[in-house]
Amino acid sequence: MAEVQLADLAVVELRRLAGQHGITGASRMRRGELEKLLATALGVAAPEPAPLVSPLAGLTVLQLRRQALDSGVRGAARMNKEQLLALLGPVLSSHSLSSAPAAEAPLPAEDPAFGYPESYGVDRVVLLVRDPEWLYSYWDVSGETWALLIQRGVTNPGNQWVRTLRVWDITDPTCSQHLVDIDLDDLSREWYFRAPVQNRVLAVEYGYRSPAGEFLVVARSNTVQVPRQTPSNLIDERYATLADTAYQLSLAGGDPTRPLGSADVDQRLADFLEEGLSSALFLGPRAAAG
Amino acid sequence: MSQHVGSVCFVLHAHLPYVRHPEYDSFLEEDWLYEAVCETYIPLLTMMERLANDGVAFRLTMSLTPPLLSMFRDQLLQDRTFRHVDLLLDLSEREIHRTRAEPQFQRLAVMYRDHFRHCRQVLERCQGDLSQEFRKYQDAGHLEIITCGATHGFFPLMVHQPEAVRAQVQVAANHYESALGRRPAGIWLPECGYYPGHEQYLAEAGIKFFFVEAHGVLFGSPRPRFGTFAPVKCPDYAVAAFGRDMESSKQVWSAAEGYPGDFDYREFYRDVGYDLDYDYVQPYLLGDGTRKNLGLKYYKITGPGETIGLGDKQPYDPDAAARKAADHAGNFLHNRRHQMAFCRDMLGRPPLIVAPYDAELFGHWWWEGPQFLEQFFRKVHCDQDEVRVTTPSEYLAANPLLQEVQPELSSWGYKGYAEFWLNDTNDWIYRHLHMATERMIHLARRFQTPSDLQRRALNQCARELLLAQSSDWAFIMRTGTMVEYAQKRTNDHLQRFETLFLGLQHGGLDETALAEYESRDNIFADLDYRVYA
Q1: Cβ of B415 and A284 within 8 Å?
Q2: Which domains are seen in chain A, by residue range?
């Protein structure tokens, strides 16, 4: 692995490599941080970071606004990038790089989302189901809301508000149940998290939680149904035995030599799905048949 | 009990993303279509022709997705398909000459020459439009053609935007009707991706059935009485869900145990495009002249990949391979008969085995796949009367009473859910796709009486959004090959959408840009943007 030129790899490849070397959270890291950690893991020298015209020029408007907030600048939510750069240049030059470490280096142009707005200027949180165990959420915050949050002091680190996804079980809409709060990283715009329950209807709130327990909701998500990963408990009594036999047969392939009810039957479904017997042959060639 | 032990429903899902680049003389990714035409679609049509001529009462179900149907019907792509076939015809003629001293290779060159001649004849007969060839077999009652999402968007990741799902279904059903002269009775949900409740949008389009992966039915509620061996009816809507049979899928599909890996079958990865002198093959490469597969392959798989390298492969023997395909068809039938007899005894009724595959497995990857299918249908017809073949519509007509079960969220992708289309290689696209959808809905509601120019822009917005939604792009990003193209397509369609959206919202529509987008992304000529209202 010593020949690996980290600087030559795409970020996606760096992330994959990081995964292979047991570095967790790689999916959310940027090039600088990935290279640093990988260099340590692989025992090679980290590449020199690319020279920057300005340490700020590569930051997005949102990031600049957050920098501005942290630096005590007022009204940043309504400023455009040039105004922010002009304002922040002098402020940050004194103590900038401690608050903008390598992980905050500008996104390289290979970033697939290059060219899209950092924000659509709406308060929004969307919840999606990846599988019965994992959910995915992304969010967006409008300039107006940012301004309000600043006004309330929510974004001031000294006040210790925590950016939070609050997960609700709303299967019974008359009696919503607060399941769990998920603390978010400062700069994250999306999050994968474990589904706290299955076979329930969930929604999340994106917002800020104060040390005193106050919760400011920025946006509430759509609802999703987390699927069950087991046969239903709802059984037509007349056919209970039949349904059980049919389930076993479906998994065991109806092979008379395989005893039904054997322990490996459930595993067969997992193996079957793992193999991913499907989909887009031209686009994802199977392993060489030979 | 009768001789009848059960029925098999073979489903081939034929899909390619809409790839058409008039701005280039040739374009690498367009080859997906030309290769699939020569290696899968025409061989399947030829199989059906032979079976029909011999009076074999076969039953096959195929989804021809709207992008694929559109490409079949597109003049530019038809012309380029002819060009592709002519090039390979020319190459195979040269190969017959080059291999004159090596009979074991020359017979293969002759096989390819004859094959491409045949392809040309089929294309000439239908004037380049294969959709009409498929239609013939549907009209004759052998083939049931079903539809798919308009651009193969993955529905479970549109869960909060029902308008997006509805548009994918409505546009697809309307397009099907214009291409095939009737409404579709069934749909293959893109990636077999089902989210509970989506049957509503299917019912609205008059669709009567869809398919789910095995666990979509097995984890349904209440517990299905017959497991995957009978379709179920969704509550509230007259829409049936057919569950996939795991065992028959595995037998054909599995990389480890599946038929296509047999050592007598043709090796996909030895291709003259890489094997022969560059100068010799260069005229057939087109584009930037990078080596690529040309479809002439002379070797067989030969042995296990661990011991047989690509260089150790032995010449392909088409006769031995044909015998093996017939053996495998017999084995498949034998196994189904046992599976069915066992299930029938345990369940008290003849089971239905639903066996869906990607169509492009047959022929493109598994060269002998169409022969396997043909042999299977012949054996079912001629050799026995216990196992029958059927289509979903035929089955539903004969078995109108279904148990009511709510199927569960599922897909036929890796691990059975949405992970392949939602992970750190591709999750960034969804916020943009969703925002474009939201804007499309807004536009459709705002513009009730648009000018002609606005109407064109609105329709084009819908096309760009639909094209951006193809699950193929997220899929490619995850596989890690050709990622740039998938990103480019996502970006291009979303940026074209954005340009038109801004023009519509704030005035100042750029007619030149619009015309350019219309000529490039020309899918769904009859589309009406109000499908999003």
Answers
A1: no
A2: 6-104 (no CATH), 124-225 (2.60.40.10)
pLDDT of residue A94: 29
Residue A155 CA, chain-centre distance (Å), reads 21
Q: Per-residue pLDDT averaged across B432-443, rounded?
A: 98
Please give the CATH superfamily to which domain B6-73+129-257+317-415 belongs. Glycoside hydrolase 38, N terminal domain (3.20.110.10)
Q: Which of B214, B224, B301 sits opposite A269 (nearest CB)?
A: B214
Predicted confidence (pLDDT) per residue in A212-257, tens digit: 999 999 999 999 999 999 999 999 888 888 998 999 899 876 565 6
Phi-psi region of A196 (alpha: psi -120 to 50; beta: other; left: phi over 0): alpha
Q: Which residues from A are below 8 Å from B225, CB to CB?
A: 236, 239, 242-243, 246
Residue with more model confidence, B156 or A286? B156
- Of B489, B440, B444, residue with least CA distance to B468: B489
Chain length of chain B: 533
Fold annotation for B423-532: immunoglobulin/albumin-binding domain-like (1.20.1430)
On chain A, the residues whose CB falls within 8 A of the CB of B301 are 289-290
> Distance (Å, rounded) from C-alpha A77 to C-alpha A74?
8
CB contact under 8 Å between B254 and A243, yes or no, is no
> Looking at the partner chain, which of A234, A236, A254 has a beta carbon nearest the beta carbon of B247?
A254
- The predicted-structure confidence for A116-136, as pLDDT tens digits, reads as follows 998 999 999 999 999 999 999
The ranges assigned to domains in chain B are: 6-73+129-257+317-415, 423-532
The average pLDDT across A276-287 equals 48
Q: Do B43 and B325 contact (CB within 8 A), yes or no?
A: no
Whose CA is closest to B252, among B337, B366, B364, B363?
B366
Residue of B71, B90, B89, B92 whose CA lies nearest to B29: B71
From the number of C-beta atoms within 10 Å of its C-beta (0-12, 13-18, 19+), residue A96 rates as: middle
The average pLDDT across B344-363 equals: 95
3-class state of residue B243 by DSSP: strand
Among chain B residues, the shortest Cα distance to A122 is held by: B435
Q: How far is B365 from chain A (nearest CA, A)?
A: 8
Three-class SS of chain A: CCCCCHHHCCHHHHHHHHHHCCCCCHHHCCHHHHHHHHHHHHCCCCCCCCCCCCCCCCCCHHHHHHHHHHCCCCCHHHCCHHHHHHHHHHHHHHHHHHHCCHHHCCCCCCCCCCCCCCCCCCCEEEEEECCCCEEEEEEECCHHHHHHHHHCCCCCHHHCCEEEEEEEECCCCCCCEEEEEEECCCCCCEEEEECCCCCCEEEEEEEEECCCCCEEEEEECCCEECCCCCCCCCCCHHHHHHHHHHHHHHHHCCCCCCCCCCCHHHHHHHHHHHHCCCCCCCCCCCCCCC
Residues 6+ apart with CB under 8 A from A82: none
Residue A106 pLDDT greater than 60, yes or no: no
Q: What is the dihedral of CA A198, B225, A247, B419, to 10 degrees?
A: -40
> Residues B356, B360, B365, B366: is their CA dihedral positive or negative?
positive
- Which one has a higher pLDDT value, A24 or B337? B337
Mean pLDDT of chain B: 96
- Span of A57-61, B176-180, B321-325, B373-377 with lowest mean pLDDT: A57-61
Residues of B (134-173) whose Cβ lies below 8 Å from A? 156-157, 159-160
Q: Which residues of A touch B293 (CB under 8 A)?
A: none
Contact A138 B430 (CB under 8 A): yes
Decide if B268 and A132 are in contact by the 8 Å CB cutoff: no
The pLDDT of B27-33, averaged and rounded, is 94
**Probe site for chain B from A29, A111, A130 (most B CB atoms < 10 A):** A130
